[in-house]
Design brief:
Helix content is about 25%, strand content about 40%. By secondary structure, it is α+β, with helices and mostly antiparallel strands. A hairpin with a 2-residue loop joins β1 and β2. The termini are far apart.
Protein backbone atom coordinates (compact mmCIF):
# COMPACT_ATOMS: atom_id res chain seq x y z
CA UNK A 1 0.00 0.00 0.00
CA UNK A 2 1.29 3.45 -0.93
CA UNK A 3 0.88 5.85 2.05
CA UNK A 4 1.67 9.51 1.61
CA UNK A 5 1.76 12.15 4.34
CA UNK A 6 2.54 15.81 4.69
CA UNK A 7 6.23 16.49 4.81
CA UNK A 8 7.79 17.82 8.01
CA UNK A 9 8.68 21.15 6.37
CA UNK A 10 5.07 21.86 5.38
CA UNK A 11 3.82 20.97 8.88
CA UNK A 12 6.36 23.30 10.45
CA UNK A 13 5.41 26.17 8.10
CA UNK A 14 1.69 25.66 8.84
CA UNK A 15 2.28 25.67 12.61
CA UNK A 16 4.32 28.89 12.37
CA UNK A 17 1.62 30.59 10.25
CA UNK A 18 -1.16 29.54 12.64
CA UNK A 19 0.89 30.77 15.62
CA UNK A 20 1.54 34.15 13.96
CA UNK A 21 -2.17 34.48 13.15
CA UNK A 22 -3.08 33.76 16.77
CA UNK A 23 -0.57 36.35 18.02
CA UNK A 24 -2.00 39.01 15.67
CA UNK A 25 -5.57 38.29 16.80
CA UNK A 26 -4.66 38.41 20.51
CA UNK A 27 -2.62 41.62 20.06
CA UNK A 28 -5.49 43.38 18.26
CA UNK A 29 -7.73 42.48 21.19
CA UNK A 30 -5.34 43.52 24.00
CA UNK A 31 -3.62 46.58 22.48
CA UNK A 32 -6.51 49.09 22.87
CA UNK A 33 -6.94 48.16 26.54
CA UNK A 34 -3.23 48.70 27.19
CA UNK A 35 -3.33 52.12 25.49
CA UNK A 36 -6.35 53.22 27.58
CA UNK A 37 -4.69 52.07 30.79
CA UNK A 38 -1.55 54.06 29.99
CA UNK A 39 -3.56 57.21 29.31
CA UNK A 40 -5.51 56.78 32.54
CA UNK A 41 -2.36 56.35 34.62
CA UNK A 42 -0.78 59.41 33.02
CA UNK A 43 -3.82 61.57 33.82
CA UNK A 44 -4.15 60.23 37.36
CA UNK A 45 -0.53 61.08 38.07
CA UNK A 46 -1.26 64.72 37.15
CA UNK A 47 -3.73 64.85 40.06
CA UNK A 48 -0.74 64.86 42.44
CA UNK A 49 0.42 68.17 40.90
CA UNK A 50 -2.90 69.96 41.51
CA UNK A 51 -4.43 71.22 44.73
CA UNK A 52 -7.87 72.77 44.96
CA UNK A 53 -9.36 73.83 48.31
CA UNK A 54 -12.78 75.17 49.21
CA UNK A 55 -12.45 78.57 50.87
CA UNK A 56 -16.04 79.71 51.52
CA UNK A 57 -19.50 78.18 51.64
CA UNK A 58 -22.43 80.42 52.51
CA UNK A 59 -26.07 80.29 51.58
CA UNK A 60 -29.13 82.48 51.74
CA UNK A 61 -32.51 80.80 51.18
CA UNK A 62 -32.26 78.79 47.93
CA UNK A 63 -28.90 80.07 46.66
CA UNK A 64 -25.47 78.94 47.80
CA UNK A 65 -22.22 80.61 46.90
CA UNK A 66 -19.00 78.70 47.24
CA UNK A 67 -15.44 79.81 46.62
CA UNK A 68 -12.68 77.38 45.69
CA UNK A 69 -9.01 78.29 45.53
CA UNK A 70 -6.39 76.74 43.27
CA UNK A 71 -3.15 76.59 45.25
CA UNK A 72 -0.99 74.72 42.72
CA UNK A 73 -1.20 73.15 39.27
CA UNK A 74 -3.17 74.02 36.16
CA UNK A 75 -6.35 71.96 35.74
CA UNK A 76 -8.94 72.65 33.07
CA UNK A 77 -11.85 72.90 35.48
CA UNK A 78 -12.58 72.79 39.17
CA UNK A 79 -15.47 70.85 40.62
CA UNK A 80 -17.27 71.48 43.90
CA UNK A 81 -19.35 68.89 45.74
CA UNK A 82 -21.98 70.18 48.14
CA UNK A 83 -23.12 67.70 50.78
CA UNK A 84 -26.49 68.05 52.46
CA UNK A 85 -27.49 67.02 55.98
CA UNK A 86 -29.48 64.05 54.61
CA UNK A 87 -26.33 62.62 52.94
CA UNK A 88 -27.24 63.61 49.36
CA UNK A 89 -24.84 65.64 47.22
CA UNK A 90 -24.97 68.25 44.48
CA UNK A 91 -22.09 68.75 42.03
CA UNK A 92 -21.18 71.81 39.97
CA UNK A 93 -18.07 72.82 38.02
CA UNK A 94 -16.50 75.90 36.51
CA UNK A 95 -13.33 76.91 34.67
CA UNK A 96 -10.21 76.79 36.80
CA UNK A 97 -8.80 80.06 38.13
CA UNK A 98 -5.16 81.05 37.91
CA UNK A 99 -2.80 79.67 40.55
CA UNK A 100 -3.65 81.22 43.94
CA UNK A 101 -6.84 82.57 42.40
CA UNK A 102 -10.38 81.76 43.41
CA UNK A 103 -13.41 80.70 41.42
CA UNK A 104 -16.99 81.14 42.53
CA UNK A 105 -19.32 78.20 42.16
CA UNK A 106 -23.03 78.70 42.74
CA UNK A 107 -25.67 76.15 43.57
CA UNK A 108 -29.44 76.28 43.66
CA UNK A 109 -30.48 74.46 46.81
CA UNK A 110 -33.44 72.10 46.43
CA UNK A 111 -36.38 72.83 48.73
CA UNK A 112 -36.07 71.30 52.16
CA UNK A 113 -32.33 70.60 51.89
CA UNK A 114 -29.81 72.02 54.34
CA UNK A 115 -26.23 72.42 53.02
CA UNK A 116 -23.63 70.93 55.32
CA UNK A 117 -20.15 70.84 53.74
CA UNK A 118 -18.34 71.83 50.56
CA UNK A 119 -15.42 69.95 49.01
CA UNK A 120 -13.49 70.72 45.83
CA UNK A 121 -11.27 68.91 43.33
CA UNK A 122 -9.79 69.32 39.86
CA UNK A 123 -10.76 68.03 36.43
CA UNK A 124 -7.74 67.41 34.21
CA UNK A 125 -7.64 66.79 30.45
CA UNK A 126 -4.87 65.74 28.10
CA UNK A 127 -4.12 66.80 24.53
CA UNK A 128 -6.31 64.03 23.12
CA UNK A 129 -9.44 65.18 24.95
CA UNK A 130 -9.41 62.48 27.63
CA UNK A 131 -10.35 63.84 31.03
CA UNK A 132 -10.36 62.62 34.60
CA UNK A 133 -11.85 63.94 37.81
CA UNK A 134 -9.27 63.82 40.58
CA UNK A 135 -10.30 62.17 43.85
CA UNK A 136 -11.98 64.40 46.41
CA UNK A 137 -9.60 65.32 49.22
CA UNK A 138 -10.62 64.92 52.84
CA UNK A 139 -10.53 68.72 53.28
CA UNK A 140 -14.04 70.15 53.49
CA UNK A 141 -15.47 73.32 54.93
CA UNK A 142 -18.76 73.79 56.72
CA UNK A 143 -21.50 75.80 55.06
CA UNK A 144 -22.99 78.68 57.01
CA UNK A 145 -26.29 80.49 56.58
CA UNK A 146 -26.06 84.21 55.89
CA UNK A 147 -28.30 86.44 57.89
Amino acid sequence: MNKRGISGVIVTVLIVLISLGAVVIVWNFISPALNRAGTSIELESKCFDVEVKPSRCSYLSADLSGLVQLTRGSPDKVMAVLKFSDGSTLVNQTDAPAVFGTAEITFTIPAGKIPETLAATAIISDDEGNSITCPLPQTTIDCVAES
